[in-house]
Amino acid sequence: MQRRHLLGYSAAGVGTLGVTLFVGWWQVDGPGGKEPAGKRPLSLSAMDFRLTNHEGNAVGPETLFRRPTMVFFGFTYCPDVCPTTLSDISSWLDAMGEDAEQLNVVFITVDPDRDSVEAMAEYVGYFHPSVRGWTGAPEEIARVADGFRVTYEKVPTDGGDYTMNHTASVFLFDAGGRFMSTIDYHESREFAVPKIRRAMQNGTEGAT
Amino acid sequence: MKMVLKGAIAAFSMVAGFSGPVMGGAEDVVVEDAWSRASIGSNRPGAAYMRIRNTGDEEVTLTVIRTDLAMMPEIHLTSTNDQGVSSMVPAGEIEIAPGETVALEPGRLHAMLMRLQRPMAEGDTFLLTLVFSDAGELTVEVPILGVAARGPES
Question: Where along chain A do its domains lie?
Answer without folding.
Answer: 1-34, 44-206
